[in-house]
Structure to design on (192 residues):
């Protein structure tokens, strides 16, 4: 619900205002669910960053489009799509010892499994890593991401193994990625 509220607030509020409204509304609810005060604030702070990439506010995306000379709304929509991993990090904060109470090994496991889960989710969402992914691979990577972000050690291991197998297929299928032709850099340089 905090993520949904941040998405809606991100449509009309800058980051600081979205954080203040979200922490007032969702902070007590998160603490009643058993999260520590600092964890609740970090989750709300992380989610409030959504307004940087959610049109029609999308301050960061619109600034980048001005620098790149691209369409602001198209850049904003692309940034919004690429930033959906933003919603996964707070799950790690809530369900793993990433911020409080974990040993060095537990924190290291949370970091490594979180990175693998983010890669799996990103490739599943985008549909490309080294080459275009097949529908079966995308579904498998989405399942792997869900398994990794499930707060269970065996689910983490299964999701990481599935991710490793599916990403290894990207590199060892015998196909090579398309080569960049020599005329493309010249065309880009002339356009700039």
């Amino acid at each position: 619900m905090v993520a949904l509220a941040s998405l809606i607030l991100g449509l009309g509020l800058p980051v600081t205002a979205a954080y203040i409204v979200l922490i007032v509304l969702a902070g007590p609810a998160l603490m009643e669910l058993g999260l520590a005060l600092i964890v609740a604030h970090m989750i709300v702070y992380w989610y409030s960053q959504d307004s940087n990439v959610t049109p029609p506010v999308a301050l960061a995306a619109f600034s980048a489009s001005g620098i790149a000379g691209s369409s602001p709304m198209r850049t904003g929509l692309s940034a919004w799509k690429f930033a959906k991993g933003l919603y996964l990090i707070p799950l790690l904060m809530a369900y793993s010892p990433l911020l409080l109470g974990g040993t060095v090994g537990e924190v290291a496991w949370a970091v490594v499994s979180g990175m693998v889960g983010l890669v799996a989710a990103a490739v599943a969402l985008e549909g490309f890593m080294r080459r275009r992914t097949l529908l079966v691979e995308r579904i498998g990577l989405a399942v792997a991401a869900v398994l990794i972000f499930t707060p269970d050690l065996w689910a983490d291991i299964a999701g990481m193994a599935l991710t490793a197998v599916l990403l290894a297929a990207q590199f060892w299928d015998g196909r090579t990625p398309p080569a960049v032709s020599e005329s493309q850099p010249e065309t880009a340089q002339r356009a700039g």
About this structure: The chain is about 70% helix and 0% strand. The two ends are 44 Å apart (CA to CA). Residues 100-174 form one domain.
